[in-house]
Known about the structure:
- The complex is a heterodimer of chains A (141) and B (135).
- Chain A is an all-alpha fold and 141 residues long.
- Chain A has helices spanning 2-8, 28-59, 61-71, 74-101, 108-137.
Amino acid sequence: MPxxxxxxxxVRIERPLSxxxxxxxxxxxxxxxxxxxxxxxxxxxxxxxxxxxxxAVSSGxxxxxAVQSFTSSWAGRLIAFGYTWALMHHMxxxxxxxxxxxxxxxxxxxxxxxxxxxxxxxxxxxxLLWIAAYAIGGGGR
Amino acid sequence: xxxTPPSGAKSMxxxxxxxxxxxSAHSGTTDFWRQRLTSVAMILLIVPMVVVxxxxxxxxxAGAAQILGSPPIAIIMLLFVVASIWHMKIGMQVIIExxxxxGKLKLASIMANNFFSVTLALTAAYAIFKLSSGx
Lengths: 141, 135
């Protein structure tokens, strides 16, 4: 359609173009949009750990010991902590999207509030879960 | 529209007649809907999942296997695994469709995404069933 309609125009009208992304002031909602996707990708690969752990439990003590030596290591614990945060953040971000899907929360103040709640809530839930985990089992999963 | 309509400029068909039944294939929102369905499922499952994880903390393999093999916990695990892997498969496909522009590479990536997701889901299901049967 554009090709034929443009050919019919004798003079090409200079219309304002959509500005590039970097023209806009960077906002928290933009950051969290990317973080939502990034946490989704992290959880995608994190699921490998969940499945590895399930297979290990079903395989026997040897395989389970390998998982435990990983989860009790410094790096393993950091990954488990990161996984918890990614899950909590992505979940709250998802709730925010469901609220938007239902048609609520589009006013600037509501939008900002939801975004802040996602960010702070994700961190808060993660810390609470890890405090509970250390209180119950003396360490992460 | 100034361009010639597909059925010819002199067609006797009305504009409405031309577009009727050429609209939605009634399947375009399947992934969108499943993404929401699985997300709500996971929101419902997150509390039981956290409880299960807390119960399992600090246990040895035999203890963990016994707990994971009990019917309610095995079913919670199975539901969560299915919902989460379905959700992540759709999510990754959206990302591939956004960023991979080469047609064949896109096909290969989407196929790999499907293979990866199905393998993970069935491996998890295998482990859960094995634990439940007490082998």
